[in-house]
Amino acid sequence: MYKAFRLLAVSAAVAISALAGGCSSLERLRLIGEPPALASIDNPQTHPGYKPVQMPMPAAQPAVYNPNSLWRSGSRAFFKDQRAHQIGDILTVTVNITDKANIENETQRSRKNSEDSGVTDYIGAKTLSNPAKAILPGRILTADSQASSEGKGSVNRQEALQTNVAAVVTQVLPNGNLVVEGKQEVRVNFEIRELIVAGIVRPEDIQSDNTIDSSKIAEARIAYGGRGQLTDVQQPRYGQQVLDVLLPF
Question: Which of 28, 46, 62, 216 has its CA 20 to 30 A from that of 7?
């Protein structure tokens, strides 16, 4: 009965997985032999998940002009500043990430319990017939339990990413900080490598050549990955992913 129930549960999980990934599977079958398509260039503000950034802002400061002077307070150059400063401007983000981490944990735990009353001839036991004695326990109370657990975990991570990506200013905050977002896609044969950079930058941190280092981006969101034939082979099948979520063992 248990085996039948378990088989039914596994079958139901596979069926749900097939229904969930049906459209995706049909789309992939249609594109067999074709390279993955590049995403269209569009306005980031039109994306379904796009939300304007709201941050604490200081009180607005009025512009101060000095009499008989061509210099305006707060200006970064005497002539026109070519660095990004308004919505739609483009700047280059230098992504330079070098991370290394080594973590190792080990936990061991065990417990053993045993209870035995040692009482066999309890009240009324001798008056019972043989068939009744056959179904009664030899002792009135006997209990044994044993539990143990052992866990080990280790992390050895080393990442290095150095590249440049152009980003677009999508919003100017009241204090003058810029919200930027950039996306880059490179297709090599049948694999697309994708780099996404987003965050908040100060205009003062933008270099004279209109570049900024990724370490100076606040609320930085940097994603580097890919999709295509190689990535597809490295991912487990839909059924295996569903079973990994549903099975308790």
Answer: 28
The tokens of 119 are what?
């009482």
pTM: 0.58
- CA terminus-to-terminus distance, the chain: 19
Alpha helices (H) along 111-167: 130-135
* Residue 192 φ then ψ, to 5°: -110, 125
> Please, are residues 230 and 74 in contact by the beta-carbon 8 Å criterion?
no
> In this predicted model, what pLDDT tens digit does every residue of 87-130 receive, in sequence order?
888 999 998 887 777 888 888 888 887 766 665 655 555 555 56
Q: CA angle, 185 as apex, 55 and 96 as ends, to 5°?
A: 60
Token pair of 17, please?
């997985």
201 neighbors 216 (Cβ within 8 angstroms): yes
Please list, in sequence order, all residues whose beta carbon lies within 8 angstroms of the beta carbon of residue 64, skipping any fewer than 6 positions away.
73
Q: How far is CA 14 from CA 17, 21, 27, in A?
A: 5, 10, 19
Cα distances from 238 to residues 19, 28, 49, in angstroms, run: 11, 13, 25
Q: What is the rounded CA–CA span in Å between residue 57 and residue 62? A: 15
The whole-angstrom distance between residue 63's C-alpha and the CA centroid of its chain comes to: 43
CB atoms within 10 A of CB 10: 15
Tens digit of each residue's pLDDT (9 = 90 or more) over 190-207: 888 889 999 999 999 999
